[in-house]
Amino acid sequence: MNLENILLENENGIATIIIDRPSKLNALNKKTISELHHAFKETDNDPKVKVIIITGSGEKAFVAGADISEFADFSVSEGAQLASEGQAMLFDFVANLSTPVIAAVNGFALGGGLELALAAHFRVASDNAKMGLPEVSLGVIPGYGGTQRLPQLVGKGRAMEMIMTAGMIDANTALSYGLVNHVTTQEELLPLAEKIASKIMRNSSVAIAAAITSINAGFKDGENGFDTEVTQFGHCFGTADFKEGTQAFLQKRRADFQGE
């Protein structure tokens, strides 16, 4: 696939996906969503990639929202289809990837941009970051999972306030809310994400995938997270990584995981 709106870098087991529409503050349009799906799918399927970092180009914005011009004239059915297809193609897809995804939020993360960050497995932010879901100021609501994932992270009351006021919060407020895990300078944002990624990469990728599945199950209707944990825990015993990890521990050496 010819990528026009994103850049994809791959080095030392870390894939970095950069949304590159600086003139539009990296706003999401249909083509960008499609390209992101392709990039996430390609990197998730690459056994050499152990961690994915998603960020925006430049210093102003991670993603400053969706491209409103694409759907301003949509009907009721078209609007529902837009949300359904977008969630399936990108936001739910990212949330359920077996490869860990870190969102490095550099600048504005608004609307669909914050929803993309929410879909990542966790977030780090630059100290100039601003985050919010301003959709109600346009007469619509978040449609890419924002009404579901934001309350899971910050609590119902704070999510209600953020969504109803359509306001933005700064990076330190996001940190206090639990929306992001770390705040640092713009210059240190990607190095911090890469440092965390390097720590993740020391561990078993198959165990990490099982952990992602188990954690996500606890937030899904109709699924019992404890049952999923039991199943995934059992599956780990049949992996080469489990054998390597336990033997390395008993032999007092560092494990050499192969992701199998």
Features:
10 helices, single chain, six-stranded mixed sheet, 45% helix, alpha/beta
How would you portray this structure in words?
The protein is α/β, with parallel strands linked by helices. The chain folds into two domains: 196 residues, 2-enoyl-CoA Hydratase, Chain A, domain 1; 46 residues. The protein is built from ten helices and ten strands. The strands form two sheets. It has a six-stranded mixed beta sheet, sandwiched between helices. Strands 4-6-8-9 form a four-stranded mixed beta sheet. The longest helix has 20 residues.
How do you describe this structure in short?
By secondary structure, the chain is α/β, with parallel strands linked by helices. The chain contains ten helices and ten strands.
